[in-house]
Write a structure and sequence with these properties.
With about 250 residues, the protein is α+β, with helices and mostly antiparallel strands. It has helices at about 5-20, 35-40, 45-50, 85-90, 110-115, 145-150, 180, 240-245; strands at about 95-100, 110, 120-130, 135-145, 160-170, 170-180, 190-195, 195, 205-210, 220-230. The longest helix is centred in the N-terminal third of the chain and has 12 residues, at about 5-20. It starts with 6 loop residues before the first helix and ends in an 8-residue tail after the last helix.
Length: about 250
């Protein structure tokens, strides 16, 4: 299967997905304790308010190859360590299939080879970890917008959920973003890093890069993307593993 997305089709898909939403005319929100409260949990605010947050549509800074960090730490889990994942890793993910489902017209099952042959974007960006460290790396992957457009989002979809291969303390790891971040041009599912195939420690076969947010939103080992209307009822209901476990903010904008 070849993923071919025209600009007209991509814009049309985004319009259909957001057609029923209120588009805010505000360009700025003053940074305050009240606006910060809006960001604590995505389900506590409307999608229209989320769209109005400062800088949501702006591009994250990009860097040159000369500015790349000599060492890029492997944050979080360095290996899912499950029999299923180990079997896929042993064959370089030859038989692995990536799933796009939920509120879509055409659910997808794609091989890693199909994804690598699809649309691609390469970007050199800075990863900012909530633990206080940063690193600059190069990422190559398929734009999430291209996958969602190819699958055909239902107009009820409001969020995209990333289901991952790893678990922490027995709990499945997952993350989520809204459609504004999902269709941002720098939001990609990366299969390459620094000119090489993505290593296991950095999230092979696919890792989310949502460059306007902190590192814990950059889910690794992504196996499935699900379009949903609400985050309620998904695991702990707050939109991500760390959000559920220790109360990290759902929107981690930088």
């Amino acid at each position: 299967m070849t993923i071919e997305i025209s600009r007209r089709r991509l814009v049309g898909s985004l319009g259909a997905a957001t057609g029923g939403l209120l588009l805010s005319g505000c360009d700025k929100i003053v940074a305050s304790s009240k606006s910060q409260d809006f960001l604590d949990v995505g389900e506590q605010v409307t999608f229209a308010v989320q769209r109005a947050v400062v800088g949501r549509s702006a591009m994250a800074p990009e860097f040159t190859a000369a500015e790349m960090s000599p060492v890029f730490r492997t944050n979080g889990n360095s290996n899912p360590n499950t029999p299923e994942y180990a079997a896929h890793a042993a064959t370089s993910f030859a038989d692995w299939r990536f799933v796009v489902d939920g509120l879509v017209a055409k659910p997808l099952r794609l091989s890693l080879d199909q994804i690598r042959k699809g649309p691609r974007r390469t970007q050199i960006t800075r990863h900012d970890c909530v633990e206080g460290w940063s690193a600059i790396g190069q990422w190559t992957g398929i734009p999430l917008a291209a996958l969602l457009a190819h699958a055909g989002l239902n107009s009820r979809a409001r969020y995209v959920v990333f289901h991952c291969a790893d678990r922490i303390g027995g709990a499945p790891y997952y993350e989520s973003i809204d459609l504004l971040d999902a269709f941002h041009p720098q939001t990609i599912l990366a299969w390459g890093m620094n000119g090489q195939p993505l290593a296991i420690g950095h999230g092979a076969p696919l890792r989310l890069r949502v460059e306007r947010q902190l590192g814990y939103k950059q889910a690794k080992y992504v196996m499935r993307v699900q379009a949903v209307e609400t985050l309620a009822g998904l695991y702990g209901g707050k939109g991500g593993y760390w959000e559920d476990a220790i109360g990290y903010q759902w929107y981690a904008g930088i």
